[in-house]
Design goal:
Number of domains: 1
Radius of gyration: 14 Å
CATH class: Alpha Beta
Distance between the termini: 22 Å
Helix content: 25-40%
CATH superfamily: Archease domain
Structural class: alpha+beta
Number of strands: 7
Strand content: over 45%
CATH topology: Archease, Possible Chaperone, Chain: A, domain 1
Strand order of the largest sheet: 1-2-7-6
Shape: globular
């Protein structure tokens, strides 16, 4: 598992990591959905594509997670597998991804907590021996 919860008094503060920036963003998406539902019960039966841009890596991470949260809120989609590609563009970054999952089913997927929003507060993208991202979910 490439993510873990961090201490926070009232919201969900998460850290995700990977050997590449793409893997860290994939694990951030898993952390988002694992916060909301039992991720191990989600089946990868359908696939959706995503494209987001950001002027820096923090805004790219925000836009990525926000687009996934919008899919959950608008279409009831939960995802468990991700294939992320990130490229540097003039003036920022572009993320393209495929996500595999299914429609949320209250009888099969235990609902853990509602996520109201992704926030910029405490958001970080770092690279040292691994790539690490931190983000706060308003619950």
């Amino acid at each position: 598992m490439g993510y873990r919860p961090l201490e926070h008094t009232s919201d969900a503060y998460l850290e995700a990591w990977g050997s590449s920036l793409e893997e860290a963003f994939e694990n951030a998406a898993k952390a988002l959905f694992d916060t909301m539902v039992e991720l191990e019960k989600v089946e990868a039966v359908s696939e959706d594509s995503f494209e987001v841009e950001g002027e820096d890596l923090e805004s790219l991470l925000y836009n990525w997670l926000e687009s996934l949260l919008i899919e959950f809120d608008s279409r009831g989609m939960v995802y468990r597998e991700f294939d992320v590609r990130i490229e540097r563009r003039d003036g920022g970054f572009r993320l393209s991804a495929r996500a595999k999952g299914e429609r949320f089913d209250l009888e099969r997927h235990r609902y853990k907590v509602g996520v109201k929003a992704v926030t910029y507060h405490l958001m970080k993208v770092e690279a040292d021996d691994t790539y690490r991202v931190r983000f706060l979910l308003d619950i």
